[in-house]
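Lecture 7 notes: from sequence to structure.
We start with the chain below.
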Amino acid sequence: MPVKQQRAATLAEDLDLLLDELCAKWQYRNELTGAELIAKKSPVTALDFTRAVLVAEGLKPDNEPNLVRQVKRKFVQRYGLQITSEAYEG
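Predicted structure tokens for the same chain:
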């Protein structure tokens, strides 16, 4: 069950917060935005989010099983397996 804690008014803004957390934890460059992730695909799934983060860092998700697991876990703890703007803001 995801931890329900809305920290921003919109999903895009909250995804930005999660991306910032990942940046701080693993020194990622954070070249993604929540708005970009939502525009690419809705719902945003844990796996899509994880792959986008790692690809933006120049990594191949298939070669980074530990990072995939860790980033995916952060997403799932926050949103569950997937999230839409409507579900987040509703």
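Points to note: The beta strands are 44-45, 82-83. Residues 18 and 27 are 13 Å apart (CA to CA).
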